[in-house]
Amino acid sequence: MTVEPFIGLSALLFAIGAIGVLVRRNAIVVFMCVELMLNACNLSFVTFARAHGNLDGQVAAFFVMVVAAAEVVVGLAIIVSIFRTRRSASVDDASLLKL
Amino acid sequence: MTAFWLLAPIMVVAALGVVLSRKAVHSALCLAVVMISLAMMYAMQDAPFLFAVQIIVYTGAIMMLFLFVLMLVGVDKTDSLVETIKGQRLVAIVLGLLFGGVLVTVVAQAFVGPVVGLGEANADGNVHGLAKLLFNRYVFAFEATSALLITAVLGAMVLAHRERLEPRRTQRDLALERMQRYAEHGEHPGNLPTPGVYARHNAVDVPALLPDGSTSEISTSKTLRDRGVVRDGAFAGDVSVTMRRLEADGPERGRVEPPPSTPARHDGEEDL
Question: Which residue of A10, A75, B82, B261 could cross-link A43, Cys pair, CB 3.0 to 4.6 Å?
């Protein structure tokens, strides 16, 4: 099995996730797009681990998963607390610090 | 490689679905498709441990957390299409496509050298090899992970906690309030009347009968009233008319009662 298609797919998924983060306004969907980017990185980690013949890439992917889980917990808690005060989950509404 | 070419289009379409679908729930379901497909890719690439973790942690835990928060925040909220920064959407899409094009055409082709494969590294089993790495070379990173998890738990607790700003209302307060309303507005302090009970209907949509034969407005749910499905007075007319209608329905409908003129008969009519 060659490596390039996997890396290409991972790059494509990362780019789609990046576009989603820039375009979408709903904070939860933005979070999902961040998750998509993290998953794309994981795919290339695993692919490179196979290409180089050692397991360091898989360990890195494992750590990415742990960090993603922690990030989701805190991020969703922030979204819930913002929603509680502002009655909205849109990233555009939280703009009080803007000049 | 067949599995890859089967899965890759599904993943790309689902990833586009995450970005493009108007409803957040659809985005979440598309993301679940991407994650399960990714798990299969891990299985294809000699990473059985990550395959299991991807399904259990990502699809099982993280996606459920997303859906849970979606339900909490409100599923029916769709994105607004109003741009707060002018032209931001267009610029973002163009830049994102350029970024993706560069990544796919340049970076994905840059890998050189033969593919070694994990046969040697996985000789003792994938989980065994991962554990060896995790508890030797990456043991400090592993320890730091524990600090991260504790911090995340504390952060979630602090952020989700809400201070009680007013004292809790006891049963006594509620009763006093009710009597206050009775004194000021004449609002009846007791329970609302229950809806009428007829064997021919779902009882909740039939209003109760008052002693004078009229129907009680407050005995049915306000939702049903607003929806207009309350059977207003379907059986609230003259009792003899009702009886005739019941008998016309056929003998199997039940018993033929004595002449419906006595007050006792009126009561019996209600719980037919």
Answer: A10
In angstroms, the Cα distances linking B187 to B6, B173, B192, B208, B226 are: 68, 17, 11, 19, 21
* CB contact (8 A) between residue A19 and residue B42: no
Q: Structure pTM?
A: 0.72
- d(Cα A27, Cα B80) in Å, to the nearest integer? 12
**A98 touches B: beta carbon within 8 Å:** no
- Note whether B111 contacts A4, CB cutoff 8 Å: yes
B90 in reach of chain A (CB within 8 A): no
Instruction: Judge whether B36 is closer than 8 Å to chain A, CB to CB.
Output: no
**Residues A15, B84: C-beta atoms closer than 8 Å:** no
- What burial class does residue B35 get, using C-beta atoms within 10 Å of its C-beta: 0-12 exposed, 13-18 middle, 19+ buried? buried
Q: What are the tokens at B210? A: 């008052």
In the numeric block, the tokens 């607390």 are attached to A81
Q: What is the pLDDT of residues A60-94, one digit of tens each?
A: 999 999 999 999 999 999 888 888 887 777 777 77
Q: Do A53 and B141 lie within an 8 Å CB cutoff?
A: no
